[in-house]
Amino acid sequence: MIGVRCREYSSEKFRGFSRCCHYVGRRDFLIGRIACNVRHHHKTSVETSHVNGKEFERVLVHGSGGVNVRPIVVGTVDENVETSETNGDRVKLEGGNVEEDGIGKERREDSDVEKEAWRLLRNAVVKYCGSPVGTVAANDPNDKQPLNYDQVFIRDFVPAALAFLLRGEKGIVKNFLLHTLQLQSWEKTVDCYSPGQGLMPASFKVRTIPHGGEQPEEVLDPDFGESAIGRVAPVDSGLWWIILLRAYGKITGDYSLQERIEVQTGIRLILNLCLTDGFDMFPSLLVTDGSCMIDRRMGIHGHPLEIQALFYSALRCSREMLAVSDGSKKLITAINNRLSAISFHIREYYWVDMKKINEIYRYKTEEYSTDATNKFNIYPEQVPHWLMEWVPEEGGYLIGNLQPAHMDFRFFTLGNLWSIISSLATPKQNEAILKLMEDKWDDLVGQMPLKICYPAFDRERWRIITGSDPKNT
């Protein structure tokens, strides 16, 4: 079994870990630190003027050169804070310490609901070599066959990681970022074919390997999609990793992690994989179904909004974190070019409100020209009947997918909300999205915490698009 074997090494060989691990893979990295004396400065926002097909030249990215200003950190992390709490509710973090550094201000007492939530979260923590490295996707003691829900998923751990960071417990997040980074470079194959270098795993599991009379060794066993349902590579894992890396620095004030040479290399590998030239004519990422959110068919093959919003956000985070060097200048230029292109593309072509719906009904079809209004050859009959009555007069949203002759008019919650968070949508569009969610609260929330998408497939459409998947209902 390919794995990460836990052993004791001297601190002279590996700095940064009190307990060091031997990683077997395509290449080896030494855990070291670098001090970046020079940082580039680009504004992390992409500003556009009125967006339409005739004014693409007016889409600007400001701050094309200079040195990046380190962002202001709200609150401080006291590295010397010690705690005597040993009641079992605290997670042991780096090196086995009981409590991680706390934010430098008094925290109100948790409510009963919050205490229960934290108890459940801490019970889901996974440890490797004595230190926490993440949380399992689901922790149901009654589930006799958990499949892969007992693994640490990158996308699933992000909200838990943010909760730990906001509570001042950074060690588990730091361990997670470093261990998943080491898994990035491994060679994984499906039927003798390997994915591109830089792919992050969808999940990993801590396994114990017996060695006869010797002490068993712990092994990190990653899944790059070769074991997933449908055998689909996780496109979103690397994007979430970059976003979480920046969140770690912003919340804790510890920028030394993102400045490490192996972390900088990991960022570049992910970006090179995403920015590789291909056959696609659009700035959005082309992905297959099941490559994000869940590894099941959801009818999102093509350019799903969720991936585009995460891609845009990861590009902005990377531009802020990348250290300036001769090798990164071209990459930063490519990031700037893609940011301006994808922001225009999403804001212009994915946006739907009453005005846009009326425009679609008046579209001409089969336009063969470079200045066609109906650039994707969308037929008006494709607009569903429920849409006109559902979209409020002052509301709107970003559609789920866009391909030639196809617009997916479903409302995908994560894609729309992340477009607001990352400033992918314009301020006016942000307001319209929130207005729609307020007006359609019963449809989007109802008795549920929050629906992934609306409306759901049913009957024949569900059978065709999901492949009659009984778990995808």
UniProtKB/TrEMBL annotation:
Q: Which GO terms describe its molecular function?
A: endo-alpha-N-acetylgalactosaminidase activity; sucrose alpha-glucosidase activity
* Catalysed reaction equations from the record: Hydrolysis of terminal non-reducing beta-D-fructofuranoside residues in beta-D-fructofuranosides
* One Pfam short name: Glyco_hydro_100
Bilayer-crossing regions = none
Protein name as it appears in the record = Alkaline/neutral invertase
Q: Which UniProt keywords apply?
A: Carbohydrate metabolism, Glycosidase, Hydrolase
Q: Which is a GO BP term held by this UniProt record? A: sucrose catabolic process
Question: What EC number(s) does the entry state?
Answer: 3.2.1.26
The record's comment on protein family reads: Belongs to the glycosyl hydrolase 100 family.
Q: Which InterPro entries match?
A: 6-hairpin_glycosidase_sf, 6hp_glycosidase-like_sf, Glyco_hydro_100
Its annotated function is as follows: Invertase that cleaves sucrose into glucose and fructose.
Q: Name one GO cellular component term.
A: mitochondrion
Its EC top class is hydrolase
